[in-house]
Amino acid sequence: MPAIVLVGAQWGDEGKGKATDLLGSRIDYVVKFNGGNNAGHTVVIEQPDGSREKYALHLLPSGILTEGVTPVIANGVVIDLGVLFEEIDGLNARGIDTSRLQISGNAHVIPSYNRVLDKVTERFLGSRKIGTTGRGIGPTYADKMNRIGIRVQDLFDPSILRQKVGAALDVKNELLVKMYNRRAVEVDEVVEDLLQYVERLRPMVVDSSLELSKALDRGDTVLCEAGQATLLDVDHGTYPYVTSSNAISAGACTGAGIPPTRIDRVIAIIKAYTTRVGEGPFPTELLDDKGEFLRKQGAEFGTTTGRPRRCGWVDTVIGRYANRVNGVTDFVLTKLDVLTGLETVPVCVAYEVDGERFDEMPMSQSDFHHATPVYEELPGWFEDISHCRTWEELPENCRAYVEFVEQQIGARISVIGVGPGRDEVIVRHDLLHD
Ligand code: IMP
């Protein structure tokens, strides 16, 4: 079978695990193609004795937990090597085999100075800060574009590594010392820090684009899982309040070296309401008790930073946009159960900006900042839906809500999440074969 890309349709944390769980054993490769340890997902795995084991992953692709799957960290990722080996060691200590992991030699590493720069730059920006995760993601992608980045393959040639770190520090130390009043960083300390991982890294490093091409030729199924989400994409998101990589489906092409002609399906995850962490515009945000209700019912606190997430109603303008820029074949609607118990459920269908109606995302950042949502109020439901496993079992108002959202966003909703558990889903169309 084919290459499938899995993306988030909103500002992240939509619950991609619902789709990966469903695809589970039918996948041969799980590829991370963008971002770094700014992502975070909690995977709960049911044990043979019925107990539940919880794993928090930030950098490793979720496929690491599934036997028989080859997890790949592709060229588009930025890797904090300390975090990588901490996660590997943590999993090994719990009996998980991580030896199948493949890492692209073209992926960039996050040197320690970029973690420092991420934090001091945010502090410097003050009220204009982005609200980054502080993991050095932005500065490392900036170095990549500036052609002063350090790649995984550089670690295998210490003299080249030293030269490259030296060239980067010529610029970074100016910034650190003169602008941010921090101490200068020594070349030796960075090189030593990176080289401590080299022998453990060596057997994992591959030409991942070639490996994936061969896998697709063999007929294997390759799942490319985007970090972050559509509106955090550096080109198509709410710039500058975005991450520094391409989180839309096309990011899989550049970030993993898989050509567009080989991608067969694009699955987008959309939550039944909206959340955002960090700064930036958010038209349907609720700053009242309704927002608190969603945060509490949906347990909306960050996996990576623990920050409370900003919450608001579902926004189908964003859903439509995500459909358009990703070329979505199937949506997975998650956390529908969180909306249970509301008299009416507002759905944002358009925006109003200075008296003008926008049915599509406004092109200008200023307009988006001033957008106020136009809502349609749908009747709510009070029945517990977490035990529903078929479409017909859902209460009528709940089905009407799903159909309305589907019609607004313009692509079919194939799967509906009705609870946090693996099996708490309703499958309307198989994600691989229908
Ligand atoms: P950075 O990716 O650390 O540079 O942060 C840039 C923006 O992306 C900030 O608003 C972060 O909160 C947001 N962000 C980064 N990763 C995630 C994620 O996995 N989920 C949700 N938001 C994220």
Give a written overview of the molecule.
With 434 residues, the chain is of the alpha/beta class. It has 13 helices and 19 strands. The chain has helices at residues 17-23, 81-93, 112-125, 137-146, 158-179, 187-195, 198-201, 208-218, 251-256, 289-297, 316-326, 365-370, 396-409; strands at residues 3-8, 29-32, 41-46, 52-57, 70-73, 78-79, 102-104, 108-109, 205-206, 222-225, 263-271, 273-276, 310-313, 330-334, 344-353, 356-358, 372-379, 413-417, 425-427. A 10-stranded mixed beta sheet has the order 9-7-5-2-10-1-11-14-18-19. A 3-stranded antiparallel beta sheet has the order 16-15-17. α3 packs across α4 (137-146). The longest helix has 22 residues, at 158-179. Inosinic acid binds at residues 12-13, 38-40, 130-133, 135, 137-138, 228, 232, 241, 243-244, 277-278. Inosinic acid binds next to α4.
The portion of residues assigned to helices is 25-40%
The computed structural class is: alpha/beta
Discrete helix count:
13
The percentage of residues in β strands lies in 15-25%
Mean pLDDT: 95
- Give the terminus-to-terminus CA distance: 13 Å
Largest sheet: 10 strands, mixed
Overall geometry comes to globular
Bound molecules: inosinic acid
Compute the CA-based radius of gyration: 22 Å
